[in-house]
Amino acid sequence: MKITNKHNLPQTIVALASREFYSKGDADYSATEIISPPRIQRLRKRHYDEIEQDVSEMLWSMLGSALHVVAERSVIPNHVNEERLILNVNGVRLSGAIDLQHEQPDGVVISDYKFTSAWALMNDKPEWEQQQNIYAYLVEKVKGKKVKKLEIIALVRDWSRREAMYKANYPQAPMQVIDVALWPLEKTEAYIIERLEMHRDSKVSADWGDELPPCTEDDKWIRETKFAVKKEGRKTAVRVFDNQQEADELLATLPAKDKGFVEIRKGEPVRCTGNFCGVNQWCSQYQAYLAEQATTETQE
Ligand code: SF4
Protein backbone atom coordinates (compact mmCIF):
# COMPACT_ATOMS: atom_id res chain seq x y z
CA MET A 1 0.00 0.00 0.00
CA LYS A 2 1.25 3.49 -0.87
CA ILE A 3 0.95 5.98 1.98
CA THR A 4 0.72 9.55 0.69
CA ASN A 5 1.17 12.77 2.68
CA LYS A 6 -0.96 15.38 0.90
CA HIS A 7 -1.15 17.69 3.91
CA ASN A 8 2.52 17.76 4.69
CA LEU A 9 2.28 16.13 8.11
CA PRO A 10 5.50 15.45 10.07
CA GLN A 11 7.51 12.36 9.12
CA THR A 12 6.97 10.95 12.64
CA ILE A 13 3.26 10.61 11.85
CA VAL A 14 3.94 9.22 8.37
CA ALA A 15 6.32 6.61 9.83
CA LEU A 16 3.72 5.62 12.43
CA ALA A 17 0.99 5.35 9.79
CA SER A 18 3.25 3.16 7.66
CA ARG A 19 3.84 0.65 10.46
CA GLU A 20 1.80 -2.51 10.38
CA PHE A 21 0.51 -2.93 13.92
CA TYR A 22 -1.74 -5.77 12.95
CA SER A 23 -0.54 -9.14 11.72
CA LYS A 24 -2.53 -12.33 11.46
CA GLY A 25 0.55 -14.28 12.60
CA ASP A 26 1.14 -17.76 11.23
CA ALA A 27 -2.44 -18.14 9.95
CA ASP A 28 -4.19 -18.41 6.58
CA TYR A 29 -7.09 -16.15 7.52
CA SER A 30 -7.99 -13.80 10.33
CA ALA A 31 -11.49 -13.51 11.80
CA THR A 32 -11.89 -10.04 10.24
CA GLU A 33 -10.86 -11.36 6.84
CA ILE A 34 -13.40 -14.16 6.76
CA ILE A 35 -16.33 -11.95 7.75
CA SER A 36 -15.40 -9.49 4.99
CA PRO A 37 -16.79 -10.14 1.45
CA PRO A 38 -14.45 -12.42 -0.56
CA ARG A 39 -14.52 -10.08 -3.56
CA ILE A 40 -13.13 -7.20 -1.49
CA GLN A 41 -10.44 -9.39 0.06
CA ARG A 42 -9.23 -10.75 -3.29
CA LEU A 43 -9.21 -7.33 -4.97
CA ARG A 44 -7.29 -5.86 -2.05
CA LYS A 45 -4.68 -8.62 -2.27
CA ARG A 46 -4.41 -8.29 -6.03
CA HIS A 47 -3.98 -4.51 -5.97
CA TYR A 48 -2.30 -4.05 -2.60
CA ASP A 49 0.76 -2.29 -4.08
CA GLU A 50 -1.43 0.14 -6.03
CA ILE A 51 -3.85 1.08 -3.24
CA GLU A 52 -3.20 4.62 -1.99
CA GLN A 53 -4.17 6.06 1.35
CA ASP A 54 -3.36 9.49 2.69
CA VAL A 55 -1.97 9.79 6.22
CA SER A 56 -4.62 12.39 7.03
CA GLU A 57 -7.34 9.78 6.45
CA MET A 58 -5.71 7.30 8.83
CA LEU A 59 -6.42 9.19 12.05
CA TRP A 60 -8.89 6.68 13.49
CA SER A 61 -6.99 3.57 12.49
CA MET A 62 -3.85 5.07 14.09
CA LEU A 63 -5.75 5.94 17.26
CA GLY A 64 -7.15 2.41 17.24
CA SER A 65 -3.63 0.98 17.10
CA ALA A 66 -2.53 3.38 19.85
CA LEU A 67 -5.38 2.24 22.08
CA HIS A 68 -4.35 -1.40 21.66
CA VAL A 69 -0.75 -0.58 22.61
CA VAL A 70 -1.88 1.33 25.73
CA ALA A 71 -4.43 -1.35 26.69
CA GLU A 72 -1.72 -4.02 26.51
CA ARG A 73 0.09 -2.24 29.36
CA SER A 74 -2.84 -2.44 31.73
CA VAL A 75 -2.28 -5.26 34.24
CA ILE A 76 -5.38 -6.37 36.16
CA PRO A 77 -5.81 -9.84 37.69
CA ASN A 78 -7.85 -12.20 35.45
CA HIS A 79 -7.81 -9.73 32.55
CA VAL A 80 -6.02 -11.04 29.47
CA ASN A 81 -5.11 -8.25 27.03
CA GLU A 82 -4.45 -8.55 23.32
CA GLU A 83 -4.16 -12.32 22.96
CA ARG A 84 -3.86 -13.95 19.53
CA LEU A 85 -5.38 -17.40 19.15
CA ILE A 86 -4.95 -19.68 16.14
CA LEU A 87 -7.10 -22.72 15.37
CA ASN A 88 -6.91 -25.30 12.61
CA VAL A 89 -10.36 -25.62 10.99
CA ASN A 90 -10.52 -28.33 8.31
CA GLY A 91 -6.86 -27.77 7.42
CA VAL A 92 -7.10 -23.95 7.40
CA ARG A 93 -5.43 -21.89 10.13
CA LEU A 94 -7.83 -19.27 11.44
CA SER A 95 -6.62 -16.53 13.80
CA GLY A 96 -8.20 -13.92 16.00
CA ALA A 97 -6.59 -11.17 18.08
CA ILE A 98 -8.83 -10.64 21.07
CA ASP A 99 -8.66 -7.24 22.76
CA LEU A 100 -9.73 -8.26 26.24
CA GLN A 101 -10.78 -11.45 28.02
CA HIS A 102 -12.06 -11.09 31.55
CA GLU A 103 -11.82 -14.55 33.08
CA GLN A 104 -14.49 -15.12 35.71
CA PRO A 105 -15.34 -18.32 37.66
CA ASP A 106 -18.41 -19.05 35.49
CA GLY A 107 -16.92 -18.09 32.13
CA VAL A 108 -15.01 -15.56 30.08
CA VAL A 109 -16.30 -12.13 29.05
CA ILE A 110 -14.85 -11.11 25.67
CA SER A 111 -14.60 -7.38 24.92
CA ASP A 112 -13.57 -5.63 21.74
CA TYR A 113 -12.68 -1.92 21.44
CA LYS A 114 -14.24 -0.13 18.47
CA PHE A 115 -13.87 3.48 17.39
CA THR A 116 -17.21 4.05 15.76
CA SER A 117 -19.82 6.64 14.83
CA ALA A 118 -23.02 7.48 16.73
CA TRP A 119 -24.96 6.44 13.60
CA ALA A 120 -23.38 2.96 13.71
CA LEU A 121 -24.50 2.53 17.31
CA MET A 122 -28.07 3.40 16.37
CA ASN A 123 -28.12 0.79 13.60
CA ASP A 124 -27.39 -2.91 13.29
CA LYS A 125 -23.78 -3.97 12.95
CA PRO A 126 -23.96 -7.68 12.09
CA GLU A 127 -20.20 -7.85 11.54
CA TRP A 128 -19.58 -7.07 15.22
CA GLU A 129 -21.69 -10.05 16.19
CA GLN A 130 -19.98 -12.31 13.64
CA GLN A 131 -16.48 -11.29 14.71
CA GLN A 132 -17.16 -11.61 18.43
CA ASN A 133 -18.68 -15.06 18.01
CA ILE A 134 -15.63 -16.25 16.08
CA TYR A 135 -13.52 -15.06 19.03
CA ALA A 136 -15.77 -16.96 21.42
CA TYR A 137 -15.32 -20.09 19.29
CA LEU A 138 -11.53 -19.67 19.36
CA VAL A 139 -11.48 -19.23 23.16
CA GLU A 140 -13.64 -22.33 23.67
CA LYS A 141 -11.71 -24.52 21.21
CA VAL A 142 -8.12 -23.31 21.76
CA LYS A 143 -8.19 -22.56 25.51
CA GLY A 144 -11.00 -24.92 26.50
CA LYS A 145 -12.71 -22.12 28.43
CA LYS A 146 -16.42 -21.41 28.42
CA VAL A 147 -17.44 -17.98 27.15
CA LYS A 148 -20.37 -16.42 28.98
CA LYS A 149 -20.67 -12.96 27.46
CA LEU A 150 -19.66 -10.83 24.48
CA GLU A 151 -19.47 -7.06 24.41
CA ILE A 152 -18.21 -4.12 22.39
CA ILE A 153 -16.54 -1.17 24.09
CA ALA A 154 -17.70 1.53 21.70
CA LEU A 155 -15.74 4.81 21.54
CA VAL A 156 -18.01 7.22 19.72
CA ARG A 157 -15.86 9.47 17.49
CA ASP A 158 -18.53 12.04 16.65
CA TRP A 159 -20.44 12.08 19.94
CA SER A 160 -22.41 15.27 20.57
CA ARG A 161 -23.82 16.24 23.96
CA ARG A 162 -26.53 18.24 22.23
CA GLU A 163 -27.69 15.32 20.05
CA ALA A 164 -27.68 13.08 23.12
CA MET A 165 -30.16 15.46 24.78
CA TYR A 166 -32.61 15.68 21.91
CA LYS A 167 -32.36 12.56 19.73
CA ALA A 168 -34.08 9.29 20.59
CA ASN A 169 -31.77 6.21 20.55
CA TYR A 170 -28.69 8.48 20.47
CA PRO A 171 -25.79 7.10 22.58
CA GLN A 172 -25.92 8.78 25.97
CA ALA A 173 -22.14 8.84 26.51
CA PRO A 174 -19.06 8.91 24.27
CA MET A 175 -17.97 5.52 25.64
CA GLN A 176 -20.51 2.72 25.80
CA VAL A 177 -20.57 -1.00 26.54
CA ILE A 178 -22.75 -2.78 23.99
CA ASP A 179 -23.93 -6.33 24.58
CA VAL A 180 -23.52 -8.70 21.66
CA ALA A 181 -25.61 -11.87 21.16
CA LEU A 182 -23.69 -15.05 21.95
CA TRP A 183 -24.46 -17.82 19.43
CA PRO A 184 -24.58 -21.54 20.17
CA LEU A 185 -21.20 -23.10 19.31
CA GLU A 186 -22.72 -25.19 16.47
CA LYS A 187 -24.06 -22.07 14.76
CA THR A 188 -20.65 -20.37 14.94
CA GLU A 189 -18.91 -23.49 13.65
CA ALA A 190 -21.27 -23.69 10.64
CA TYR A 191 -20.77 -19.96 9.99
CA ILE A 192 -16.95 -20.27 10.11
CA ILE A 193 -16.91 -23.26 7.75
CA GLU A 194 -19.25 -21.52 5.30
CA ARG A 195 -17.13 -18.36 5.24
CA LEU A 196 -13.85 -20.27 4.91
CA GLU A 197 -15.27 -22.17 1.93
CA MET A 198 -16.44 -18.93 0.30
CA HIS A 199 -12.98 -17.42 0.66
CA ARG A 200 -11.26 -20.60 -0.53
CA ASP A 201 -13.50 -20.72 -3.63
CA SER A 202 -12.89 -17.08 -4.44
CA LYS A 203 -9.12 -17.62 -4.12
CA VAL A 204 -9.37 -20.49 -6.60
CA SER A 205 -11.38 -18.25 -8.98
CA ALA A 206 -8.78 -15.50 -8.63
CA ASP A 207 -5.89 -17.94 -9.23
CA TRP A 208 -7.59 -19.18 -12.39
CA GLY A 209 -8.36 -15.66 -13.59
CA ASP A 210 -12.11 -16.29 -13.35
CA GLU A 211 -14.66 -13.66 -12.36
CA LEU A 212 -14.78 -13.18 -8.59
CA PRO A 213 -18.00 -13.92 -6.70
CA PRO A 214 -20.14 -10.75 -6.60
CA CYS A 215 -20.70 -8.73 -3.44
CA THR A 216 -24.22 -9.18 -2.09
CA GLU A 217 -26.68 -6.35 -1.41
CA ASP A 218 -25.68 -6.45 2.25
CA ASP A 219 -21.97 -6.42 1.35
CA LYS A 220 -22.53 -3.28 -0.71
CA TRP A 221 -24.38 -1.49 2.13
CA ILE A 222 -27.35 -0.74 -0.11
CA ARG A 223 -29.23 2.42 0.77
CA GLU A 224 -32.79 2.04 -0.49
CA THR A 225 -34.50 4.70 -2.61
CA LYS A 226 -36.67 7.05 -0.51
CA PHE A 227 -39.56 9.32 -1.46
CA ALA A 228 -39.68 12.64 0.39
CA VAL A 229 -42.84 14.75 0.40
CA LYS A 230 -41.71 18.38 0.43
CA LYS A 231 -43.20 21.86 0.33
CA GLU A 232 -41.72 24.63 -1.76
CA GLY A 233 -39.50 26.95 0.31
CA ARG A 234 -39.14 24.48 3.20
CA LYS A 235 -35.77 22.75 3.63
CA THR A 236 -36.84 19.61 5.47
CA ALA A 237 -39.29 17.02 4.17
CA VAL A 238 -42.83 16.79 5.55
CA ARG A 239 -42.37 13.01 5.62
CA VAL A 240 -40.14 10.43 3.96
CA PHE A 241 -41.53 7.14 2.61
CA ASP A 242 -40.10 3.88 1.32
CA ASN A 243 -42.46 3.84 -1.66
CA GLN A 244 -43.87 6.32 -4.15
CA GLN A 245 -47.52 5.39 -3.60
CA GLU A 246 -47.58 6.46 0.06
CA ALA A 247 -45.74 9.67 -0.81
CA ASP A 248 -48.24 10.45 -3.57
CA GLU A 249 -51.14 9.81 -1.18
CA LEU A 250 -49.81 12.32 1.36
CA LEU A 251 -49.03 14.82 -1.40
CA ALA A 252 -52.65 14.67 -2.56
CA THR A 253 -53.81 15.81 0.91
CA LEU A 254 -51.64 18.98 0.96
CA PRO A 255 -53.37 22.30 0.13
CA ALA A 256 -52.44 23.67 -3.31
CA LYS A 257 -50.89 26.82 -1.73
CA ASP A 258 -48.11 24.63 -0.22
CA LYS A 259 -46.86 23.75 -3.71
CA GLY A 260 -45.94 20.26 -2.56
CA PHE A 261 -43.90 17.79 -4.56
CA VAL A 262 -42.21 14.40 -4.14
CA GLU A 263 -38.41 14.33 -4.16
CA ILE A 264 -36.93 10.96 -5.13
CA ARG A 265 -33.79 10.25 -3.12
CA LYS A 266 -32.14 7.60 -5.20
CA GLY A 267 -30.73 4.59 -3.36
CA GLU A 268 -27.17 3.48 -3.92
CA PRO A 269 -24.56 0.91 -2.88
CA VAL A 270 -22.85 3.14 -0.32
CA ARG A 271 -19.81 0.92 0.21
CA CYS A 272 -19.07 1.04 -3.53
CA THR A 273 -19.91 4.67 -4.28
CA GLY A 274 -18.05 5.96 -1.21
CA ASN A 275 -15.18 3.54 -1.96
CA PHE A 276 -15.31 2.28 1.62
CA CYS A 277 -14.00 -1.05 0.30
CA GLY A 278 -10.97 0.80 -1.15
CA VAL A 279 -11.02 -1.16 -4.42
CA ASN A 280 -13.92 0.23 -6.47
CA GLN A 281 -11.67 1.33 -9.32
CA TRP A 282 -10.68 -2.30 -10.00
CA CYS A 283 -14.11 -3.83 -9.41
CA SER A 284 -15.95 -5.01 -12.54
CA GLN A 285 -19.20 -5.27 -10.55
CA TYR A 286 -19.00 -1.57 -9.63
CA GLN A 287 -17.95 -0.55 -13.15
CA ALA A 288 -21.03 -2.40 -14.48
CA TYR A 289 -23.20 -0.51 -11.96
CA LEU A 290 -21.76 2.84 -13.14
CA ALA A 291 -22.40 1.94 -16.78
CA GLU A 292 -25.99 0.97 -15.94
CA GLN A 293 -26.51 4.27 -14.09
CA ALA A 294 -25.12 6.25 -17.03
CA THR A 295 -27.51 4.44 -19.41
CA THR A 296 -30.51 5.08 -17.13
CA GLU A 297 -29.62 8.78 -16.82
CA THR A 298 -29.35 9.12 -20.60
CA GLN A 299 -32.81 7.57 -21.00
CA GLU A 300 -34.42 9.80 -18.35
S1 SF4 B 1 -16.94 -1.74 -5.27
FE1 SF4 B 1 -18.76 -2.62 -4.32
S2 SF4 B 1 -19.07 -4.54 -5.38
FE2 SF4 B 1 -16.96 -3.93 -5.77
S3 SF4 B 1 -15.75 -4.87 -4.15
FE3 SF4 B 1 -16.29 -2.84 -3.44
S4 SF4 B 1 -18.16 -3.18 -2.23
FE4 SF4 B 1 -17.90 -4.99 -3.53
Describe this structure in words.
Helices cover 39% and strands 26% of the residues. It starts with a strand and ends with a helix. The chain has helices spanning 11-18, 31-35, 38-46, 59-72, 118-121, 126-143, 161-166, 185-207, 244-253, 270-273, 284-299; strands spanning 2-4, 29-30, 52-54, 79-89, 92-104, 107-116, 147-156, 175-180, 222-223, 226-231, 239-241, 260-265, 268-269. It is globular, with a radius of gyration of 23 Å. It has 300 residues and is of the alpha/beta class. Strands 2, 4, 5, 6, 7 and 8 form a six-stranded mixed beta sheet that branches. It binds iron/sulfur cluster.
Characteristic key phrases:
single chain; three-stranded antiparallel sheet; 300 residues; alpha/beta; 13 strands; six-stranded mixed sheet; 39% helix; binds iron/sulfur cluster
**Helical residues, percent:** 25-40%
What's the count of strands?
Answer: 13
Radius of gyration: 23 Å
Mean pLDDT reading: 92
Tell me which ligands are bound: iron/sulfur cluster
Q: What letter string, H or E per element, gives the SSE order?
A: EHEHHEHEEEHHEHEHEEEHEEHH
Which overall shape is indicated by the principal axes computed on the Cα atoms? globular
Largest sheet: 6 strands, mixed
The low-pLDDT segments are none
What is the percentage of strand-forming residues?
A: 25-35%
Helix-strand makeup class: alpha/beta
- How far apart are the first and last residues' alpha carbons, in Å? 40 Å
- How many helix segments? 11
